[in-house]
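Now for a specimen:

…
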Amino acid sequence: MSQTESGSGNRSLGIILILVLIAAAALGLAYYFYFYRAQPQVEAPPVAEVPMQTSSTLLPLEQTPAPLPVAAEVLPPEELAPPLPKLNESDAAVLAELQSLSAMSLKLVVPQEILRKFVRAVNAMDEGKVVHEYRPIASPPPPMRVESLGPPKGEELRRYRLTAENFRRYDEYVTLFAMLDQEALATIYRRFSPLLEEAYGEMGLKKGSFHEVLMSVIDKLVAMPIPEGELVLVQPKVFYQFEDPELEK
């Protein structure tokens, strides 16, 4: 396989990670709003004013005042939402919700088996892997743009660096992520959580719930170092790898 074929036919670990990271980070923000901002708030019952009593208005000791009015019950948003579809029939409902966030999201999301692909991608990240096939987000147009740093010396591998043009391939993804309404995203996450758990259950894993796996992934993403300087790659076989073993890890 030639260098061009390997560069265009296969995505590097770092580039695919950017795509999945955007999806995971978005769902991570949804988790924040789910637990800290999207819960229905019930106001405390109002405190009734007690008028100053005179000898003629004092209540007998055995008489108790009427109970204070209780605030009306607030229905959670889930009870107002339409019923969930079956997992096998969920794509249309998910696409409709994503379109309500941004029509641009329909262009970037792979429209088949959306929830299953997302669950699979998140679980792969938790295991230190990246999904190369059946991804939830469409890849940017190939080829990956790298620049050779010169011929290898002795037994060294040929070295490459990611170019600025390569990162511009992801402008559309970053723009979409920045413009999303996070509270609306939280509502979507809350609605489809049962189906996400169902899709995760189909994998037959013994790692707890999908939500727990998602939290593990978010912790790992938060702990990831932000590299400084140019990103140097090597190509020991088919896929590119970061030359820095710590960054590759």
Observations:
- The first strand starts at residue 146 and ends at 148.
